Amino acid sequence: MDIITWTWIIVGLSFALYIGIAIWSKARSTGDFYVAAKQVHPVLNGMATGADWMSAASFISMAGMISFMGRDGAMYLMGWTGGYVLLAMLLAPYLRKYGKYTVPMFVGERYYSQAARAVAVACAIFISFVYVAGQMRGVGVVFSRFLEVDIDLGVIIGMAIVFFYAVMGGMKGITYTQVAQYIVLITAYLIPAIFISFMFTGIPIPQIGFGASLSESGMRLLGTDAGYLLDKLNQIHKDLGFSAYTSGGTKSMIDVFTITLVLMVGTAGLPHIIIRFFTTPTIRGARASAGWALLFIAILYTTAPAVASFARINMISTLHNRPYVEAPSWFKNWEKTGLVAWKDKNGDGMIQYAKGSAFTGKVVFAKDEAGKPLLGQYGERVVSTPATPIEKSKNELYIDNDIIVLANPEIAKLPAWVVALVAAGGLAAALSTAAGLLLVIASAFSHDLIKNIFAPTMSERSELIFARIAAGFAVLVAGYLGIHPPGFVAQVVAFAFGLAASSFFPVIIMGIFWKKTTKEGAILGMLSGIIFTASYIVYFKFINPAMNVPAHWWWGISPEGIGAIGMLINFIVMAIVSKLTKEPPQHVQDMVASLRYPREV
After folding, report:
1. Can you tell me the distance from the alpha carbon of 264 to that of 78, in angstroms, rounded to the nearest whole number?
2. What φ, ψ does residue 366 adopt, rounded to 5°?
3. In which element (H, E) is residue 66 found?
4. Which of 69, 104, 361, 434 could bond 135 through an S-S bridge, CB–CB 3.0 to 4.6 Å?
5. What phi and psi, each to the nearest 5 degrees, are found at residue 352?
């Protein structure tokens, strides 16, 4: 069977499983909808947290970023891993002892203010929408290649699936669906990595294989002599004009540091992860589920650098200095999606890969009057405006970061069922996180805004209806953002982490560890942090993208890393304003003091 047939079978079976679980675990109360009635076993919660955590950015885009950036791409790996440890150690037990459903509830009660709650609701919804845009983009990328549908149609299909099990099952349905999605995504990630590691080095453990010597089959496949795989990759990079793969050098040290910091502290402020610790029966269970989740996450995160290295060396060896008419089938297949493109700049018909960008702007293929793609003299798809070739660049090849993991099995010529399994894994990663984010949006709107501010006497049934309506509306907005994303999957997600770092992280940390933080300090801190960060991102990414280069960034910090400065602004504003305003009531200070001892009461 071909790839498309296998994909329909495997993706269809996985979708049927998710929908079946949603029907079985339908939420029948607000407790079910928001926190799965606090009855999830720590192991299952750890697995669900892993799926919720490992979004399309982790599965699809992280290895792609490492593959193209080399060592500097590891900032995503270090930031997200360190962030989860920070969350599990510093925040989860305290918030679980507090025992409420959502972060805005904590903010509202800790800072004894409905205004503070409203600001927290706005921040949660804004962050979640930015984050979910990256997930829907990932869904579209998978559908466009493996089911040969338009990216926009792929996003719409993903919307429909998420709408069904998120709206029907709530947190209860999402939790058990995410357990199944974790099993699908981790299996899909590991099998190709194990195959390729064995092919290249004779070692079936990818975490060891990518740092080992090439085997005879690896030398034959890559057309090179004996040596370490990473040494060969470094030499290939230098020959093509890049810096050594293991030396980084694509970003300044300050930018790498701030992006890593943002990803770390942004993790600790992500509302869809924090809410998972409210689903266990006990505080001990919350701690245990954090440990299990770290184990499940580590399996994928330690494999990502290997996948990046295998894909990088295999891609260059497959394409560079090869006639376009002899380009491998995987390249022609991905070319149909618009995520890869080639422009023969020197007229020799050979694919030349080198340092620098091949095009400016978004790649769009030209079409004739009948809507069919225009083809050049070698049968290549002709790129039209707004993307134009950069003639002074020797690079003739455009490859989207987000295809590396998905194309990796095809590049390595693995069986069609493995390729299809990776497609199912990518969808599982994107949909699991999208569902968690949509639940945050729904709970923030129905419980924190409607129930606690505008209609405190509203019945539980009415609240559940509002939650489902909010989730449905959120799906529509998420779909629009997925069709019109502001960047690569990992890049979009980095923006969400920056917004979380600059808004939620300081207010939660200060709320737990400084009992004299006031409501005025919290409100002004959140607003100043998120407004500064969002303004910086919007200016460089949307208002004046031509200025989005290191020479024009403030302090040399990119939009992905500016949340670190936003976080500092939040902390400073909160501390100064709290010193200048009246101390919190005594009962609030007593509550904060009790939160510092996260043991059962």
Report:
1. 8
2. -70, 150
3. helix 62-69
4. 434
5. -115, 125
- Look at residue 137 and tell me whether its pLDDT is greater than 90: no
- Determine whether domain 3-312+414-483 maps to CATH 1.10.4160: yes
Residue with more model confidence, 464 or 396: 396
Residue 240 CB neighbours (<10 A) = 15
- φ, ψ for residue 351 (rounded to 5)? -80, 120
pLDDT, one tens digit per residue, over 535-554 is 998 898 878 877 888 888 99
The rounded radius of gyration (Å) of the Cα atoms in the chain is 24
Provide the residue type at 206 as one letter: P
Q: Is the peptide bond before 386 cis (omega within 30 degrees of 0)?
A: yes
Q: What is the pTM of this model?
A: 0.81
Cβ-based neighbour number of residue 227 at 10 Å: 13
Distance CA 512, CA 269 (A): 13
The mean pLDDT value of the chain amounts to 82
How confident is residue 100, by pLDDT bands cut at 50, 70 and 90?
low
Name the DSSP class of 363.
Answer: -
What are the tens digits of pLDDT across the range 480-521?
877 776 555 555 677 888 888 998 889 989 998 999 999 999
Residues 6 or more apart whose Cβ sits within 8 Å of residue 81:
297, 298, 301
Directed axis angle between helix 563-580 and helix 253-267, to 10°?
A: 60
Report yes or no: 369 and 338 within 8 Å, Cβ to Cβ: no
Antiparallel, parallel or unpaired: β 388-389 and 359-360 = antiparallel
How many angstroms separate the first and last alpha carbons of the chain?
59
Cβ neighbours of residue 461 closer than 8 Å, sequence gap 6 or more? none
Both structure tokens of 182? 């974790």
Q: What is the pLDDT of residue 543?
A: 85
Alpha-carbon distance of 104 to 117, in angstroms, equals: 5
**CA 374 to centroid of chain Cα atoms:** 34
- Distance, in Å, from the CA atom of 482 to the CA atom of 133, rounded to the nearest integer, reads 5
Q: Which residues pair with 397 in a beta bridge?
A: 342
Query: What residues have CB less than 8 Å from 594, skipping those under 6 apart?
Result: 97
Q: What is the 3-state secondary structure (H, E, C) of 131-187?
A: HHHHHHHHHHHHHHHHCCCCHHHHHHHHHHHHHHHHHHHHHHHHHHHHHHHHHHHHH
Going from N- to C-terminal start, the domains of the chain cover 3-312+414-483
Contact 120, 401 (CB under 8 A): no
Give the angle 142-501-512 at the CA atoms, nearest 5°: 130
The amino acid at residue 356 is G
Cα–Cα distance between 358 and 341 in angstroms, integer?
A: 9
Rounded to the nearest 5 percent, the helix, strand and coil shares of the chain are 70, 5, 25
